[in-house]
Structures are given as structure tokens and as C-alpha cells.
Write a structure and sequence with these properties.
Mean pLDDT: 93
Shape: globular
Low-confidence stretches: none
CATH architecture: 3-Layer(aba) Sandwich
Number of helices: 6
CATH class: Alpha Beta
Number of domains: 1
Order of helices and strands: EEEHEEHEHEHEHHE
Bound molecules: NADP nicotinamide-adenine-dinucleotide phosphate
Largest sheet: 7 strands, parallel
Distance between the termini: 31 Å
Strand order of the largest sheet: 5-4-3-6-7-8-9
CATH superfamily: NAD(P)-binding Rossmann-like Domain
């Protein structure tokens, strides 16, 4: 995304420092690449040491399901970027099960830690600095499936539903500090995590045909990254507390 100022080409995120969790593959990697292209300095995270950040981004190995992981990421953001202007909470996911009663307790806790509390903890560590700057943009990545929960995934959609509620509350709290907070909710998107989940789903539930996407195809990681880039850019200055569903129309019917 570029803007033209006095005839000069200026990239939309020039001078911005961005943290993107889970940027080694899938939607997170697409967000990192688009932010770099838009001129931002980017730090990203993943759990495994073998994971690689897209070229041009800095990387910190951390598990954001834990408080210690969130603290490590916040410390790296200070050390590497000197603070943050943009935070995208992208790391997320869960395994599908036969039904609600077969979701083990530890997977409920994992789902809540990864899809809700990772954002809560990291925001608590980073937003005081952003408030001091008087500006910032935060995006929480949820799921378009939240309004239509299915039994195999109740831990996941319940955690994402709580994330959306939290995100809206945080937006209202931080608006006077100049910090905008929004949610992006992807539909079925072609990523390593998405494909692995759909394979597990087929093992548990059989190969039931997926509902057709009205726009005729699954999402690409860049479809989601486009929406995130818009929300953190100057083109969305009057947008906060909103939820942008990016799903080709799948969950809108
Ligand atoms: N793909 C879809 O169809 C779809 C649909 C709706 C919503 N979403 C949401 O979109 C987001 C991205 O999904 P995706 O499909 O791109 O996922 P993905 O392909 O599985 O990639 C997930 C990324 O997050 C990292 N990650 C996972 N757990 C982590 C942890 N505990 N701490 C730190 N990093 C972690 C992974 O690296 P490591 O494994 O090395 O940690 C990887 O970089 C998620 O929040 C997901 O719920 C996806």
C-alpha cells in the first residue's frame, strides 16, 4: 500500500515498528511480508528454533501460550525495535475432536492460552508504552467461525469469541490514548495450519464436503494480510472496536 504525498511515493508503514506473533508461516508470514513491503520494521515470533522469519524481519523464539513467553516477546520488542507502533496477535489454532465431551482439559487450557490469554498478556505488557507515545494500532486475529460454533471446536471458537469481546473492550479503553484496536476474522484460508486442521477434521468426522465459498475459492494468506494492513494503516484512522470478517462470504449466509 503506497500513498502519494507532494508527488513523492511514500509507503504506508514507513517508520513504523511492528510486532506480528506467529509469522513463520501461513497468514502471519503474509502479514510480515506485506508490512515489510509497506516500509515497516518487523519483529515476529514462533515456538520452534527451526522456524524462520520471512527475509528482512527479526525473529524471537517464544511460546506465547505462557506468561514467560509473552514477557520474552515484549522484551525482544523493546530490545530490537525500541518499542512498538503496531501489534498483530496472529498465533492461534486448536485441534478438532469428536465432540465437546472429548476435548481434554489440557486442550481447553491450551486453546484459551493460545487464542485469548496470549493477546491479553502481551497487550498488558505493550500498551502502556503505546499509550505513552499517544498512538498505536493493534489487530487480534479471530475466526469467521465464531458465530456458528461446532461441537468439535468449542474450545477454539469459545476462546476466539472471548478474544473478540476482549478486543472491543480494549478498543474502548484505549481510544482516549490514541490506540486503535480491531479484529480480523478469517474464513477458510490455505495455510499449513489450516490444512493440518482440515486433515484432522476429516480423520475424526469423515470427508464431508465443505460448504461452497460464495466467492468461489478458499482464502489465500494475502487476502487476510490485506485486511490487516488496511486496519493498521492511516486509511483506517477512524476505525476501532470493529471486527472485519474476511471469508469470501462463507459465514455470512
Ligand atoms: N487458516 C485458516 O483457515 C484460519 C481460519 C480462521 C482463523 N485462522 C486464524 O488465523 C491465525 C493464523 O492461522 P494459520 O492458519 O496461518 O496458522 P499456521 O499455519 O498454523 O501458522 C501459525 C503460526 O503461529 C506460530 N505459533 C503457533 N503456536 C504458537 C505459540 N504457542 N507461540 C508462538 N507462536 C506460535 C507457528 O509457528 P510454530 O508452530 O513454530 O510455533 C506459525 O508461525 C490463527 O489465529 C488462526 O486461528 C486461520
Amino acid at each position: 500500500m503506497t500513498t502519494t504525498e507532494n508527488g513523492a511515493e511514500k509507503r504506508a508503514l514507513t517508520g513504523k515498528r511492528a510486532l506480528v506473533t506467529g509469522g513463520s508461516r501461513g497468514i502471519g508470514a503474509a502479514i510480515v511480508r506485506q508490512f515489510l513491503k509497506a516500509g515497516a520494521e518487523v519483529l515476529t515470533t514462533a515456538r520452534s528454533a527451526e522456524s524462520k522469519a520471512p527475509d528482512g524481519a527479526s525473529f524471537v523464539q517464544a511460546d506465547v501460550r505462557t506468561l514467560a513467553g509473552a514477557e520474552a516477546v515484549a522484551a525482544a520488542a523493546q530490545e530490537v525495535l525500541g518499542g512498538v507502533d503496531i501489534v498483530v496477535h496472529n498465533a492461534g489454532g486448536a485441534r478438532p475432536h469428536q465432540g465437546s465431551a472429548t476435548i481434554p482439559d489440557d486442550e481447553w487450557l491450551d486453546a484459551l492460552n493460545l487464542n485469548l490469554l496470549s493477546s491479553v498478556r502481551l497487550d498488558a505488557l505493550l500498551t502502556p508504552g503505546m499509550a505513552q507515545q499517544g498512538s498505536g494500532a493493534i489487530v487480534h486475529v479471530s475466526s469467521a467461525a465464531v458465530p456458528t460454533p461446532v461441537s468439535a471446536f468449542l474450545h477454539y471458537t469459545a476462546a476466539k469469541a472471548a478474544l473478540e469481546n476482549y478486543s472491543r473492550g480494549l478498543a474502548l479503553e484505549l481510544a482516549p490514548s490514541g490506540i486503535r484496536v480491531n479484529t480480523v476474522s478469517p474464513g477458510r484460508t490455505a495455510t499449513p495450519g489450516g490444512e493440518a486442521t482440515r486433515e484432522l477434521w476429516a480423520q475424526v468426522h469423515g470427508d464431508a464436503a465443505a460448504p461452497a465459498v460464495p466467492l468461489g475459492r478458499d482464502g489465500a494468506p494475502d487476502d487476510i494480510a490485506d485486511a490487516v494492513l488496511f486496519l493498521v494503516s492511516g486509511k483506517a484512522q477512524w476505525l476501532t472496536g470493529s471486527s472485519l470478517v474476511v471469508d469470501g462470504g462463507e459465514f455470512h449466509r
